[in-house]
Design goal:
The protein contains nine helices and no strands. It has about 200 residues and is mainly α. Helix 1 crosses helix 6. The C terminus is likely disordered.
């Protein structure tokens, strides 16, 4: 019984660490959030905090996974995945620290196959492309998407646009990331007028 109680307490502490880390990164920024600050906020030492994760990088990957879970659980007002992507990108402008984290890890560290974030991003892009491709195929079938587009290519391009815009937005927060994602979607849904 004591072991089961300790296990439950460990799970609860890990959840608390993730919640605090997610909030701190979102509000303070990725570079301004330290393991020491997170540990202090949850009543642990740095070593104590890292007892719950394999490494600092493992913690950051867990934070990204938690962010994805929360985004999936959110009630977005979106009729399809392309609109959903625009809604998520719009929300990202409200959590700049998480955008910093995503860009820093995806564009640099995670390209190394040995980095803990590598598998996370590979899986994230594969599943995102697969879901969007299926959604675009359904949109083509019911006439909402141009028939001359390859759904898989459009999915890759739309994800690349969203990620690239996040980098530009970090340099210039006045850029409207969602507006540009929606532009690509409108171009894909545009009808070619007959006889013009």
């Amino acid at each position: 019984m004591a072991r089961r109680g300790s296990y439950a307490k460990g799970i609860a502490k890990r959840e608390e660490i993730l919640a605090v880390a997610l909030d701190r990164v979102a509000t303070q920024g990725f570079r301004r959030t330290s393991i020491r600050d997170i540990a202090a906020a949850v009543g642990l030492t740095q070593a104590g905090l890292l007892h719950y994760f394999d490494s600092k990088d493992d913690l950051w990957v867990a934070v990204l996974r938690r962010r994805d879970e929360e985004d999936r659980a959110a009630q977005w007002d979106a009729p399809d995945l392309a609109s959903l992507l625009a809604s998520v990108v719009r929300h990202n402008a409200e959590v700049p620290g998480l955008v910093q984290m995503f860009v820093n890890l995806s564009a640099a560290a995670a390209t190394d196959p040995e980095h803990p974030a590598h598998a996370y991003f590979r899986e994230r892009y594969e599943s995102g492309r697969a879901r969007m491709t299926a959604d675009f195929q359904a949109m083509q079938a019911d006439g909402r998407l141009r028939s001359d587009l390859d759904p898989a290519e459009l999915a890759s391009v739309l994800l690349a646009v969203a990620d690239g815009l996040q980098i530009q937005w970090l340099y210039d927060p006045s850029r409207d990331m969602a507006e540009h994602v929606e532009l690509v979607t409108r171009l894909a849904m545009a009808r070619v007028s007959v006889g013009s």
